[in-house]
């Protein structure tokens, strides 16, 4: 289920959905965002890569805010591992 979109890229409620979106958009891995207090999964190892891939597809951009941290992960990593950075969730 899509929780929201950020910069035109869908944020999913499950890792499997994010990885499927990544594969369809020639990306690997995933990263996470906190959206309205819930962890969401986005396809692509980084938000920047997901945005570049998304810009060539026809995804509707719904403006939203994301608060909290962003974690970068590869498919073989657990959601709790990886690096974390503060800021606007990007």
Walk me through what this model shows:
The chain has 90 residues and is an alpha+beta fold. The chain has one domain (2-85). Helix content is 21%, strand content 31%. The protein has two helices and six strands; from the N terminus they run E-E-H-E-E-H-E-E. Strands 4-3-5-6 form a four-stranded antiparallel beta sheet. Strands 1-2 form a two-stranded antiparallel sheet.
Chain-wise SSE layout:
Layout: E1 2-6, E2 9-12, H1 15-24, E3 30-35, E4 38-43, H2 47-55, E5 70-73, E6 83-85
Antiparallel strand pairs: 1-2, 3-4, 3-5, 5-6
Number of structural units classed as domains: 1
What is the spatial order of strands in the main beta sheet?
A: 4-3-5-6
Uncertain runs are 58-88
Question: Could you say which structural class the secondary elements and strand pairing correspond to?
Answer: alpha+beta
Number of strands: 6
As a percent range, the share of helical residues equals: 10-25%
The gross shape turns out to be globular
Average pLDDT confidence is 74
Order of helices and strands: EEHEEHEE
């Amino acid at each position: 289920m899509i929780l929201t979109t950020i910069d035109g890229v869908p944020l999913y409620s499950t890792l499997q959905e994010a990885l499927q979106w990544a594969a369809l958009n020639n990306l690997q891995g995933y990263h996470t965002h906190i959206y309205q207090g819930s962890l969401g999964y986005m396809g692509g190892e980084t938000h920047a890569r997901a945005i570049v891939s998304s810009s060539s597809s026809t995804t509707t951009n719904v403006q939203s805010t994301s608060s909290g941290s962003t974690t970068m992960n590869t498919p073989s990593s657990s959601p709790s591992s990886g690096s974390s950075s503060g800021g606007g969730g990007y």
